[in-house]
Amino acid sequence: MPPVALFRKHGVPIAVATDCNPGTSPLTSILVTMNMAATLFRMTVEETIAGVTREAARALGRLDEVGTLETGKSCDLAIWDIERPAELVYRIGFNPLNARIWRGQ
Fold this sequence. Notes:
By secondary structure, the chain is of the alpha+beta class. The chain has five helices and two strands; from the N terminus they run H-H-H-H-E-H-E.
């Protein structure tokens, strides 16, 4: 288990990702990864969503290019058919993707 409480205490940004690879981590679903972050690691909905967006970009050294919706940044985003953000984190086997924007298209 990652020391999430200790990270919070010291203000350490927490990235969340699948780490998909054929040898040790065949998980490809970012939604399942988000569910694990929230339910197993006790991250909040806000921390989890930030973890797969802003903090993931920060971990890759690309926060100046991607990770947040700002003028001048590359726009890759998912448009979800949900009522509240918690639905992305807590439901398993659910894919409410309505549309996606990739490279601004």
